[in-house]
Specification:
Layout: E1 2-11, E2 14-24, E3 29-33, H1 40-48, E4 55-60, E5 63-64, E6 75-78, H2 90-100, H3 105-118, H4 134-146, E7 152-156, H5 164-181, E8 184-188, H6 192-198, E9 201-206, E10 209-212
Helix pairs in contact: 2-3, 2-4
The protein binds adenosine-5'-triphosphate and magnesium ion.
GO molecular function: ATP binding
Pfam families: ABC_tran
Domain ABC transporter: 2-213
Length: 214
């Protein structure tokens, strides 16, 4: 279980997060809503280990991992701006995490191609990501986040650049994988309907605190 315990964080003398606690069980998705600038991405970065909170802890299965480096958490963070590798093709972008884990490149590439096919990009595996539209880049980023079967999945507005049909399709794909793989998932979105469709619980981040919505 992923737990954020009494997280406090300031940015340039401004309190951004003020006593935020949240827990997510394996296979569960929770949603975070909130105005732009309210600190949603910051909270995900703290959960992922890319930032250290001023106070409070991040726990996994009861162990304090607040100071554990990101690569040792086995979490996947899908960034709001995708952060794909421009010098690699789609296949190697998606295969990256598997290769890092020591899986042979040929096997990693085969798995990446299979996942890209499920995301409607099978025919484009050898192209550079710089040639893709925003929605296509988003699908590559989603595949890259899912392929290593992380124990926690932190999604920062993952479906925002997609058209309605693809959005619904990928929401379903994600919900199924989250449940099947038993991942603890945190979904940041501005779309309350999407949040309600995917998440068992939802909170709004407001004034540095979480307010339960459902
Ligand atoms: N490195 C940083 N660490 C923490 N906060 C930052 C950093 N850089 C900028 N900020 C500020 O912290 C505030 C919260 O930013 P954050 O990205 O967490 O908001 P957000 O809720 O994700 O917003 P959005 O919905 O627009 O993505 C903003 O005012 C932002 O300018
Ligand atoms: Mg954000």
């Amino acid at each position: 279980m992923l737990e954020l315990r009494q997280i406090r964080h300031r940015y340039r003398h401004q309190s951004l997060l003020d006593d935020v606690s949240l827990s997510v069980t394996p296979g569960q998705t929770v949603a975070l809503l909130g105005a732009s600038g309210s600190g949603k991405s910051t909270l995900l970065r703290i959960a992922a280990g890319l930032e250290t909170p001023d106070a409070g802890q991040v726990h996994w299965d009861g162990a304090d991992i607040t100071r554990l480096p990101p690569e040792r958490r086995h979490f996947a963070l899908m960034f709001q701006d995708f952060a794909l590798f421009p010098h690699l093709d789609l296949r190697d972008n998606v295969a990256f995490g598997l290769v890092e884990q020591g899986i042979r490149r040929a096997e990693a590439r085969a798995q990446a191609e299979a996942l890209l096919s499920r995301f409607g990009l099978g025919g484009r595996a050898r192209e550079r990501t710089t040639h893709l539209s925003g929605g296509e880049q988003q699908r590559v980023a989603l595949a890259r986040a899912l392929i290593t079967r992380p124990r926690a999945l932190l999604l920062d507005e993952p479906f925002s650049a997609l058209d309605a049909e693809l959005r619904t399709q990928l929401q379903r794909e994600f919900s199924t994988r989250i449940r099947e793989a038993g991942m603890a998932a945190v979904l940041v979105t501005h779309d309350e309907a999407e949040a309600r469709a995917m998440a068992e619980r939802g909170w709004r981040l407001e004034g540095g605190r979480l307010r339960a919505l459902w």
